[in-house]
Amino acid sequence: MKLIIDTDPGVDDALAIALAAALPEVEIAGLTTIFGNTFVEQSSRNARYLLDMLGVDAPVAEGARLPDGASTYEPSANVHGPEGFGDLDVVPEVGKNDPRPAAEFLCDLAAQTPGELVVCAIGPLTNIANALKLDRGFAENLGRLVIMGGAFNCPGNITPQAEANIYHDALAADAVFASDLNMSMVGLNATMQTLLTVEDFAQMAATAPKVGGFVNRISQFYLEFYRSVGVTEGCPMHDATAILACTNPERFTFMPAGLQVSTKAADYGATIEHPDRTPVQIARAVEADWAVAHVHAQLAALS
Length: 303
Fold this sequence. Notes:
By secondary structure, this protein is α/β, with parallel strands linked by helices.
């Protein structure tokens, strides 16, 4: 599987990218970066750093700095840390970005292998919306889009109604859901079932000291954030769960429905049904024990 990860690393993004690097069936064709957990320049730096750590030779194309129509954006440093990697205050600059903007990069790679490329978007959907604007053929050329985002008939995680990735650019997300992309949405319905505990991260560090040790270290900050909001058992495996939906969709329970994103003040960012749009495959559940065990098994191969 040829895979691009559209990402804003981010603690859980780091685990997702490491998982993709470990999966034998995945070829990482590139990372495209977006604002979200960090400013986009930090996202790109973190993405290049992660690929270097993982020994993956793949380009990083920098994407949108701001949500559609916005003039400012401020990441939530209290969730992922000031540099995106927990309490790390210095992340080395490694290499350079691909010269193409993320939207152009996405369109180029989709056009090179029509129907084959999979994009896993684990941040706000601005780059995907921009690719749709840039190339009318993008939706047809792309094999599949898997989104980590949304809360369908379940509580949100940034407001009572909305999930953070969708909320941070509701206009772009709505444009993506209005398209004819072959799309799956792996939102809080599924990802909140996949909790990683302190012991899980310690096991990653023990079995894969370099990569697992890094994930373990940066995840302590993330775990503390979840404790502060009342989730004491661990932290959800949001982004890695979306990677698993790319490779193992049979482990998920999906339902089809057209979607729109509310831009009304009362429920801004909510993902709600739209009966006249192309159906999205919405993940309602995942085999959670399998998902956590599979991540452990794959990361152990990075030791």
